[in-house]
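2024-03-11 09:14:02 INFO worker-7 job=invfold-0412 stage=load source=structure_tokens
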């Protein structure tokens, strides 16, 4: 029943928030008026938070489903586009065939009529004329046009045509060094700028059987060109650009990471460029596949050639014939190897990083301890390009520009795959940079409360929890890797601690908080820092080194405050006994002195509510012991001399005042009272200070002992005018 009511309430809340007339201000105002108290508001806030999380999960699920559908749709569109292109190509061929039928019939009919009219003429001259015309058909480009190489030429004719044509292009003689290369197609084009579609230059394209050469037109030298770029066909993609007048008859060439747009003279030439490029790429791919199959095909045992017999030489039967060692072939005709580059592209697009790395590991294991013939090198070049793309995607996943939600565990996927790819150092660097940005963001988003101690509790919880989670995740991700990564983590932790101390000092020390508040804040920070010892990380010395300057400043500032207050009370000293008026006030003073460590304070109390001590001495005792207790909370070895010198300066102010008053006072009764206060200082207060300091620090202080021993001068010769100092 309760569950049903809860579901119905959540449904009503969702409908109300989704309504078109919803106004947040009026909703909050109405809710605050109807709620009974803070508990109702907290429950309503939890319901809204749960609804927000549910909505976020649904949105994430829908985005993922839409993303998969988008990939599948894009794949289907690609298949459909390929089929439509093939269909268009078939229709174009059929049209060309139909148009060529009348053209072939007319010359045949004319030839038959001429033969009948001539009656007895020889037919050899006509054949020679046709041969002459065929010989005159050239491959040189006409201005503004395109030409296609004849398939009837032999290898020497193709090479001669390529040589003759490329002599018109400056700076491309190195192309002739490739055996078996010949010209397939060429023509004039106009290049346009990809972003703003501005005309750049006139170029001429030379399509060879394995590459595309682009040459720029030289206006001052008609018919001559200058070499511009050379693109291998296996790394070239051709894209048809839709006509958008006045921009028409264009196509785009994609060569990672750049692209170029060209315009043909008319639609027919553009269609020819697209067709011949696809045909040449397909032929090249088929040729490479056959070469790989032939290289991977097993061969029979090598035949040992018989050695020609020499009747004048004796046969050496003891020396065995050494068979020729055949080079080991690598079988690359397996289906998964042929589809590996495309599978890697799909895995990267679908963010299946684990699948991509698994494919790479499978390939490396297969090619391990195998030779590297040209087909293997070509395959590795293609795979290396995908590895570079995968590495860039994984590095982007760890960049601080990405969302920092999810904590350190959200980076585990990208870090683990980078480590598997052999990028351990880069993974460590990016992981620590990501966590530094997360810590900085968490500290910056922390709300500054009115109470300093409350803010410090939140700051320490956020920072040290993040540091602890980062350390544990680092140990999980980089276990078994190079030890240099752990050194990098220690350096990072020191830097992160500096970020924490900056925020800590700005709130505690720059705002001039009291020494007690500062001591409590430092104590909280130390306690949180000690929790890191559970994972073997001790940063206490770092926080001490970073805070020592601020703590020294705080001790010095509070010391000056105590000295000024003591001097002010000394200036108004009348050397009279304290009258606390009520037994409650006297009992409270006894408890305060007991807290300060003065156990024998009862002997200084008189009848009723009187205290046989001066108000100045009592106030000095409470203030000095309070300073010592708070300073011991801040203590670490680097502050030993600072704390000791501050205590000595504070005590000297009171001691010098008592000594001066004892020497200058003429009234015997007051002089006896001053001597009683001096005895309290030297015999009660100073031993308590010395003992408490030794307990807090762990070793005695010689300066305090010397200061207490100086009291003998007063007891031996109280009338002396010699100062204690």
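2024-03-11 09:14:09 INFO worker-7 stage=emit residues=725
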């Amino acid at each position: 029943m309760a569950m049903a009511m809860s579901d119905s309430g959540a449904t009503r809340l969702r409908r109300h928030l989704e309504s078109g007339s919803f106004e947040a201000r009026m909703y909050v105002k109405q809710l605050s008026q109807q709620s009974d108290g803070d508990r109702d508001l907290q429950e309503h806030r939890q319901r809204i938070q749960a609804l927000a999380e549910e909505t976020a999960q649904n949105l994430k699920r829908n985005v993922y489903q839409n993303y998969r559908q988008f990939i599948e749709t894009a794949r289907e569109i690609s298949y459909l586009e390929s089929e439509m292109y093939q269909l268009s190509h078939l229709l174009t061929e059929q049209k060309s065939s139909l148009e060529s039928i009348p053209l072939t019939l007319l010359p045949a009919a004319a030839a038959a009529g001429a033969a009948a009219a001539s009656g007895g003429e020889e037919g050899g001259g006509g054949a020679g004329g046709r041969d002459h015309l065929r010989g005159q058909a050239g491959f040189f480009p006409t201005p503004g046009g395109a030409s296609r190489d004849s398939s009837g030429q032999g290898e020497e004719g193709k090479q001669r045509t390529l040589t003759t044509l490329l002599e018109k292009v400056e700076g491309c003689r190195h192309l002739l060094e490739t055996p078996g290369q010949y010209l397939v197609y060429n023509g004039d084009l106009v290049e346009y700028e990809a972003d703003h579609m501005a005309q750049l230059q006139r170029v001429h394209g030379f399509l060879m059987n394995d590459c595309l050469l682009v040459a720029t037109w030289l206006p001052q030298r008609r018919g001559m060109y200058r070499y511009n770029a050379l693109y291998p066909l296996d790394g070239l993609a051709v894209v048809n650009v839709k006509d958008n007048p006045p921009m028409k008859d264009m196509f785009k060439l994609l060569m990672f990471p750049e692209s170029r747009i060209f315009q043909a003279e008319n639609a027919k030439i553009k269609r020819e460029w697209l067709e011949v490029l696809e045909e040449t790429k397909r032929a090249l791919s088929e040729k490479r596949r056959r070469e790989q199959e032939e290289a991977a095909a097993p061969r029979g045992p090598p035949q040992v050639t018989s050695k020609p017999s020499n009747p004048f030489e004796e046969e050496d039967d003891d020396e065995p014939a050494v068979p020729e060692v055949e080079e080991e072939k690598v079988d690359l005709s397996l289906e998964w190897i042929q589809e590996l580059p495309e599978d890697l592209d799909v895995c990267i697009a679908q963010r299946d990083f684990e699948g991509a790395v698994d494919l790479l590991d499978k390939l490396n294991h297969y090619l391990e301890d195998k030779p590297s013939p040209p087909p293997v090198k070509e395959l590795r070049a293609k795979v290396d390009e995908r590895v570079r793309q995968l590495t860039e995607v994984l590095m982007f996943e760890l960049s601080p520009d990405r969302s920092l939600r999810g904590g350190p565990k959200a980076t585990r996927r990208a870090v683990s795959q980078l480590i598997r790819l052999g990028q351990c150092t880069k993974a460590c660097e990016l992981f620590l940079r990501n966590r530094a940005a997360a810590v900085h963001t968490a500290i910056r988003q922390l709300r500054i409360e009115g109470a300093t101690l409350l803010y410090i509790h939140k700051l320490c919880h956020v920072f040290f929890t993040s540091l602890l989670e980062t350390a544990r995740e680092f140990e999980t991700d980089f276990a078994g890797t190079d030890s240099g990564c752990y050194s990098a983590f220690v350096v990072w932790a020191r830097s992160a601690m500096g970020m924490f101390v900056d925020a800590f000092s700005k709130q505690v020390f720059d705002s001039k908080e009291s020494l007690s508040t500062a001591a409590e804040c430092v104590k909280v920070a130390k306690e949180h820092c000690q929790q890191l010892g559970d994972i073997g990380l001790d940063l206490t010395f770092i926080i001490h080194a970073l805070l020592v300057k601020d703590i020294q400043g705080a001790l010095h500032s509070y010391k000056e405050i105590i000295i000024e207050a003591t001097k002010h009370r000394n200036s108004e000293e009348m050397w009279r006994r304290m009258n606390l008026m009520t037994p409650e006030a006297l009992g409270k003073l006894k408890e305060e002195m007991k807290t300060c460590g003065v156990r024998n304070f009862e002997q200084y109390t008189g009848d009723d509510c009187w205290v046989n001590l001066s108000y100045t001495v009592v106030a000095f005792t409470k203030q000095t012991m309070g300073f010592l207790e708070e300073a011991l909370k801040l203590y670490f070895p680097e502050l030993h001399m600072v704390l000791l010198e501050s205590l000595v300066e504070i005590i000297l102010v009171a001691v010098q005042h008592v000594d001066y008053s004892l020497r200058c006072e003429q009234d015997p009764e007051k002089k006896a009272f001053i001597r009683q206060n001096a005895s309290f200082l030297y015999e009660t207060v100073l031993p308590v200070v010395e003992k408490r300091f030794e307990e807090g620090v762990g070793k005695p202080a010689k300066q305090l002992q010397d200061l207490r021993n100086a009291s003998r001068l007063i007891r031996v010769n109280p009338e002396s005018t010699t100062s204690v100092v």
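2024-03-11 09:14:09 INFO worker-7 stage=report msg="Residues 31-86 form one domain."
2024-03-11 09:14:10 INFO worker-7 job finished
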